[in-house]
Amino acid sequence: xxxxxxxxxxxxxxxxxxxxxxxxxxxxxxxxxxxxxxxxxxxxxxxxxxxxxxxxxxxxxxxxxxxxxxxxxxxxxxxxxxxxxxxxxxxxxxxxxxxxxxxxxxxxxxxxxxxxxxxxxxxxxxxxxxxxxxxxxxxxxxxxxxxxxxxxxxxxxxxxxxxxxxxxxxxxxxxxxxxxxxxxxxxxxxxxxxxxxxxxxxxxxxxxxxxxxxxxxxxxxxxxxxxxxxxxxxxxxxxxxxxxxxxxxxxxxxxxxxxxxxxxxxxxxxxxxxxxxxxxxxxxxxxxxxxxxxxxxxxxxxxxxxxxxxxxxxxxxxxxxxxxxxxxxxxxxxxxxxxxxxxxxxxxxxxxxxxxxxxxxxxxxxxxxxxxxxxxxxxxxxxxxxxxx
Amino acid sequence: xxxxxxxxxxxxxxxxxxxxxxxxxxxxxxxxxxxxxxxxxxxxxxxxxxxxxxxxxxxxxxxxxxxxxxxxxxxxxxxxxxxxxxxxxxxxxxxxxxxxxxxxxxxxxxxxxxxxxxxxxxxxxxxxxxxxxxxxxxxxxxxxxxxxxxxxxxxxxxxxxxxxxxxxxxxxxxxxxxxxxxxxxxxxxxxxxxxxxxxxxxxxxxxxxxxxxxxxxxxxxxxxxxxxxxxxxxxxxxxxxxxxxxxxxxxxxxxxxxxxxxxxxxxxxxxxxxxxxxxxxxxxxxxxxxxxxxxxxxxxxxxxxxxxxxxxxxxxxxxxxxxxxxxxxxxxxxxxxxxxxxxxxxxxxxxxxxxxxxxxxxxxxxxxxxxxxxxxxxxxxxxxxxxxxxxxxxxxxxxxxxxxxxxxxxxxxxxxxxxxxxxxxxxxxxxxxxxxxxxxxxxxxxxxxxxxxxxxxxxxxxxxxxxxxxxxxxxxxxxxxxxxxxxxxxxxxxxxxxxxxxxxxxxxxxxxxxxxxxxxxxxxxxxxxxxxxxxxxxxxxxxxxxx
Lengths: 389, 547
Known about the structure:
The structure holds 2 protein chains of 2 kinds.
Chain A: E1 2-7, E2 10-15, H1 20-26, E3 50-53, E4 60-61, E5 72-74, H2 78-93, H3 109-116, E6 141-143, H4 153-161, E7 167-170, E8 177-180, H5 196-200, E9 206-208, E10 221-226, E11 235-241, E12 244-250, H6 263-267, E13 282-284, H7 291-296, E14 301-302, E15 326-328, H8 331-349, E16 354-357, H9 364-378, E17 383-384
Parallel strand pairs in A: 1-5, 16-17
Antiparallel strand pairs in A: 1-2, 3-4, 3-5, 6-9, 7-8, 10-11, 11-12, 13-15, 14-15
Chain B: H1 5-11, E1 14-18, H2 22-25, H3 27-39, E2 43-47, E3 60-62, H4 69-82, H5 88-94, E4 95-96, H6 98-106, H7 110-117, H8 121-133, E5 137-141, H9 143-146, H10 151-164, E6 175-177, H11 184-189, E7 196-197, E8 201-202, H12 206-216, H13 228-237, E9 242-246, H14 250-253, H15 257-266, E10 269-274, H16 279-282, E11 286-289, E12 298-301, E13 307-310, H17 323-336, H18 356-366, H19 375-379, E14 409-410, E15 429-434, H20 450-455, E16 460-463, H21 465-471, E17 478-482, E18 487-494, E19 502-506, E20 519-522, E21 529-530, E22 534-540
Parallel strand pairs in B: 1-2, 1-5, 2-3, 4-14, 5-6, 9-10, 10-11, 15-19, 16-18
Antiparallel strand pairs in B: 7-8, 12-13, 15-22, 16-19, 17-18, 17-22, 20-21
């Protein structure tokens, strides 16, 4: 069944049971929202989406009001605009004026609306909150309740997307406070550290702790990719600044996971930049010729593992080289050592001398090439990977 | 998976999870299952020897003894057939072997099954009723089903149950293994297996071999190769002289690590291509530094057979290079050395590729299930689940819709068999192994993700409070866990997640990896090790005697 209504003088026909907001958006008519999110239930908490419905006593929240046949709606009349400006002024009256240093500046739904509606920061009047900043010891989610607009998107994201019910509101009126569990630390309230609450926060009240100060929306480049951990195949955006991953953000159109990610996908990316990364081909000295010369000439180095307390620099002067010593070489040398050795082994011992372990963390193309290398070049079907492990 | 994550978690009336710690190992599937149960009215049945997180959300939680899955499933099928709840039309038109199955499960009376599994008879009856009354139903499983000496038979049992209920080939149903690594599906699809070319084309099928011989311009072996566990054995004996390992650390993930270390150290020439200095890399002759997922282009195939793009965001550090580049360079050098001389006229004899999309074009030609998977379609947003037999085919989200790939679905009647190693007086506990939420697989990546390490900094052994009291262990006390193959020391986590008589350990931390203890007994067909059951003893340790 469909229903026809008039929005801003335009006839709109859409499915019965839709809200005014849904009807308007289906017709390309913009209504601002804050507490509404298409993935979540509607609560009509923020009042920013109010519209004028002819015949109704008050302005109606577009996100919760169902459409009716013949309804006449104005989404941008003067009274609607004035009401939205008032709502925004009220929000700003208890909001820190620190967009200059706020993490989400440029990516803040409140900031965008304040800009669109030309609202000036109100003169200080009335009470303001002074919540402790970052009061929760969990390593993932930064909390600044001073910026919280009580929209409840985090509460619903946790309840409806993650189904974990960590967040809720305590108290009433001005004392209303976003709390985890019974006003506990998040992890004590059974938080799984998925960060869904951060992803759905429209302002800077909840943010990714690992990304504080690492770069704002206009300073990062987003690259859509697929997660490197389990086999669910979540997509997300790697946020890159100056060649480093500074944050992972949800991609609403990710086909498998939508906005949802888990703790490893959202917060487990920094291994990529770990100082333990191998950054040069390593060959045991016994397989190399002219090691001493190359070391003296500075072309090669003795490999000193990171993370053992020693400086990782060129230690060739004071380290003795045994046949087992790993030498940092160049690619040509390392590839030649392997290719020559494989060729010799194949000639002397046949294809049965080889075993190949492919990788469940490598791409399809890489695994295809590895399979071709085993079968075409080495002549063996002894190739397997950790699917069973 | 025969079905997709979306259809299972929106259209299933009953989700049956057996042998999968879904919310910790596949968290985003886990939350969708919780959502289906909470908001969409699906029933949730969870069977697992450990009281895992998802059990808290279940309508019915069944704690069966490790290694008794077949008995449990046969018991459920016994009740379903006894009550005539089986889908007779589906069985008549789509399957064969029902009479044999019926004869086998006839023996599995609720009383007998209860004795084997430790599950009360009323729970068995209630579970069977719940599965039967709520269809379509999806069965999800993971390594809890497969990592047994009867792994293949366990999977067959799951398939039997789903066919019996007619839960195949429709939205919200199916037999759904959840795969544990970003591209474990793709590694299988792309011929990273000893018995298959890419696309599950058998190496010992002459027509297939001929096709690849023509494409690659060489004669190829028709001998099925060795599996990973057999490979390690062969390397230990010196039969395999050269091992080339990419992106995997057998020194955490293989069973019986003392044996693995011996084998790797005895390998004449070991090449490891890695991000980090792993246990295997420490034994290597040559280590080739590889690029991470963020540093290269390509595709991954997820657990529901969906092919998706991996895109480069940053440059690899130092001299690290994508695996594809390294493999191509080695292949070209081998060709130049005359290690093999492919015929010039073979279309894919050479190794000159214009990037990874060019590799995909070769895959398209040689792999029927990937024939229509092109970069152009992926960039245009096509949602491709293989099989994708041509460029216009929309993909296959649900398998076996009107017919099974083999024609009729075959019921394979199977009997319960106990695990290879059971507790005795000397080793009185069952050890089962797995992963935790904050770590992943061998741990090489997650132990280097600062905050994941903060959350779970060291290995923990889960033990039931009754057992802890019996052995004399406090929570967080150091304990020694020993099996016939080795021993590890870690902290005890006293929790009723573990069943009485059962301890749980992970393989995320090399120094206390459970795989020093695990039994390399293999499933005879799949060659998968029995990680879910071996016998151990638990010895409390004074805190200053940490090894």
